[in-house]
Each structure stands twice: as C-alpha cells, then as structure tokens.
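Journal club prep, shared notes

We agreed each person brings one worked example of a sequence with its structure written out as tokens. Mine is NADH dehydrogenase [ubiquinone] flavoprotein 1, mitochondrial. I'm keeping it raw so we can talk through how to read the token line rather than staring at a rendered picture. Sequence first:
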Amino acid sequence: MYANRDILPISLSSLLPQSLNDFDQHQPHEGRKSRSITSFKPASSIGLNWSRATKGDLPIMISRAAVAPPAHAIPYVSSRALTSAAAAFLPRLTSAQPAVKQSTAPQNQQQSQQLAQQQPQAQRRGFATVQDGAAAHPPRVYGGLKDQDRIFQNLYGRHPPDLKHAMKCGDWYKTKEIILKGHDWIISEIKTSGLRGRGGAGFPSGLKWSFMNFKDWDKDTKPRYLVVNADEGEPGTCKDREIMRKDPHKLIEGCLVSGRAMNATAAYIYIRGEFYEEATVLQKAINEAYAAGLIGKNACGSGYDFDVYIHRGMGAYICGEETALIESIEGKAGKPRLKPPFPAAVGLFGCPSTVTNVETVAVAPTICRRGGKWFAGFGRERNQGTKLFCISGHVNNPCTVEEEMSIPLRELIDRHCGGVRGGWDNLLAVIPGGSSTPVLPKHICDDQMMDFDALKDSQSGLGTAAVIVMDKSTDIVRAISRLSAFYRHESCGQCTPCREGSKWTLQMMERFERGQAREREIDMLQELTKQVEGHTICALGEAFAWPIQGLIRHFRPELEGRIRQNAQANGGKEVFAGGWAPNTRQEGKLIAPGQ
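Then the structure, token by token:
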C-alpha cells in the first residue's frame, strides 16, 4: 500500500509487524504545512520525506527511525482528534517503553565522541540539516573566540564613535583594495564565510547579494540601491542600535563594501523614528566619511561612486518587512507588496534593490579583510561566524554581546549575564530569538545551542538572537497575551488572515489569561494559528502565531489549570465557548472579550 514503508501514518503503523524497539528517537513536527489526520494518502503520492503531518500538537507521521518519547513528552491531544487506530496506538507508545530518566550531558567533547562511537550507526540521527546517519553532535571546537576576534570592538562605547577612533580599531583599513577587487571577489568571500542574514530569516548573504548581478546587468541604465534595514522594532531586540550608536563607521564602510558587491549606486539606511540619538550619531559619521573622501565621488580613491543617505521612519513595526520598508521610503503607506516581482528586480523607485540588516552589512568589511575562512572558523557547519546576542529579562546583568555562533544558551547567560535571577533552577522559559519565535521551557534550554539549525530542531528559531529570559515568577500566559496585543496593534490590516486572525487570537488569549474559556478552545486557538500561518502577504502572520503555538506546545497544562481554577471559583459552572458564563448569560452581560 505504501511505497515507502519507513514513513507511515501513526494510525496504520500499529498494524504493522514491527516492535517499538525499532524506534530510536522521537522526531517532532515543524508545524508548517499541516495535514489533517482525516486525509491520509500514500507516502508516495504526497511526496513526504520525513515527519511533517500534524493535527494540533500530535505528531501524526513518525519515521520508523524515531524512538517513542517519554510519557511526559507526549503532547496533549483530545480523543476526538484521534482516529480509532491512533487512539489504540497511543497508550502502547507510552506504556511499552520503560520510564526514561533525564539524561546527563557528557562532561566534555571527548566523552561525547566516545558515546557517539559506541552507539550503533543505525541508531544515530543528526540534525534536521544533516543527513540521517551522521553523528548527533558533529565534532567542533568551541571556545576559540578571543577578544581580538570580535568584530565590534567598540560595542560598549569605550571610545568616541568618530572617524579617528574608528580607524584605530581597524575600520577603513585597505578598503580601497577591497573595492578594486570587484564584486565577484567580495561575493565569493561572503559565500566562503557562510554568513547568513542577521535580521532573522538567516538567508545566505552571498547568494542574496548575487541576485543583483543578473545577466546583462551592466547594460541596465537604471540606478541600483542597497537598502539597510535599521528599523529595529522586534520586542527584546537591541543590537542594531548599539552598532549605530557605538560603531557607526563599521556600518558606513559595510554599506560601501556590500554596495560594491551589488554594483549599487547608493545606500539608503532606513532607521526607526524613535532612534533619534542613533540617527544623529550616524549622520555625523556619514558627514565625516564624505569629508575624508571615503564615500561619495571616487570613494576611497577607487573610482567607484557611492552615496549614503539616512531615511527616518515613524516607528511602524510592519516597516521592518523589506517591501513595506521600500514603500515607506517612497512616501507611501508602509504595507508589504506582493511577490513577485522581488526587490532584486523591481525594488526601491522601481529599480533593482537589496534590503539587508545592519549587522549583516557591518561585518562584511572585516570578513573581506580577514578572509571568509577565518569567519567560517567559528560555529557549526551552516551556522558559521560570530553573532550579536541581546539578553534581557530575568538575568542579573542584561547586555548585548558578540559571541560565537552555536554557543550553548546556558553558557551564554552564565558567562555574560551573571546567570538567571535566583539561579538556573529558577528558570521557567526563554524566548530565544525575539518575540516572534516560540518559547522554550527550561528542560530544552538546559542543552540548547544558539544557532539557526539547533533552534529549528527545537521547534523555535534564532531570529534576531534577542534572548528574553523568564523566571518562575513570570505569568507565561499573560506574557504571550501581551505579545499578542503588540502584534494586533502593529498589523497593517492589508490581508484578512492577519487583520482578523490577530484580533481573534488576542481576544482568546485575554480570556485564557483570566481562565474564562473551555479546554477545547485551546485546540481552536491552535487551529486558528495554523490557518493564519503561511497565508499572509508578509511574515507578520507567523510572528503572532508562533509564540502562541509555543505556549500551547510546552505550557498547555498551565492553560488548562487556569481554566479549571476559574471554573471552581464560579461554583464549578462551565464557561460557554466564547466567554459566556451561565450566571451572566441570562442577564445578557458579555464577560469576554473586552469586559
């Protein structure tokens, strides 16, 4: 019946002559492009390569190379959501395996390699971006980052942000030689470095910059633009403002180098309206660069003409999306465009343009000076380089710090922030990459590495690397509800799923916060976020859906407990779906939403 018998629906796998010992690791779903459990098709007909189909939080497709998780890790799902075969299989899945004790991480890299060698090859599984059969933890050397390797030497403002001190720190050194080597060489070095976008998406920067150099680009008479996204509006994110305030010349030199890679004629730095001090410091640095002949006509004496302009926004979060940012610069309402056409073909003022993040641009000159292989020497494969992490919340010393990619989350917090307030055992959860990434509970944070692929495997994301730490005094439901209010306020209202979905999710989250709901509404909220996800013009739909999905995935008992507590406070009377309570329904008073 199934062409690929290694991947089967859970409702049918219980009927096969196989034992649970064939499984070696549980593979959680990603949450994208969900499939209903009532619409099973042969694996060959739907082209599944691995576990993706879900219903709510229940993994429906499980690879035969995956082990059953411990009982406490099975996500909650109502019996109505299961087919009869799956309902019969789920108790077997939890009871057939002995209780799994929490494993202790190897004390050092040598022990980790020994354990990997002792484990049979058939029982190994790598990360989502590594082929099956690879070691779970690829060999790597961690801790090689020294102070002299850090790109942003003035991150803490020890020196004035002027040109004189910037040149002492290595800025504008041999920039002319870099420009004269041409766009192909610059892009080649960026590709060698493995640099991925630092604004959240993590797209390979060298590949993105090469899109501007399409066939016969030199015959196109239109101007070409580099647009730098300095509209840092993601809650918890405070890295780009530190670059503009403390190291503005790194950004300006980066505009020149990356602009040369794209053969751009000018750069527009779109800066958030609230960043008055940053805009003032940056404009002063631009004036210094013009006066020194570093930008403008014959930039750095290379014969390449390049201008840099600042455009201040008005604080709209939606203008952080690249096409909405372009619309705002053009003087229009900041609403995202439909794609295609993409900005590389039709961007700012209808000309070829590339929108990229402040940090991505600022590291380009140092990569070209020191070499792409040097930058690629930090972090894991596909996650190379250094990264600015901004840690806030319940830590002893909140800070913004440049660290090596793939650093363990616990080490990042303990080394640079003095640990969690009240100790690591007082940790409740962490939002690892800004407010739009799903929250992670403590038991995942214990061994979590901070890079794109490791966080993807944990069903979250690196995002902007804005680490928000929450201890056990946090009301996690209220925290996510507050984020829902932010995204509801910042939705531009252009597309219906985002406009209506953000309003509905906020109303439901406010009721969950008070416990005025039924338990089945948790599944309704989950389904609502899945319907919004992937059906909006820009990524704002995912931005408000993912935090809620993370809350339901890891803290569903908290939601259910709050609902039961509210019911007990009202004499055990059940709250009607939508927030109507039996004792107020007769009086015609709506207790939620809004009251």
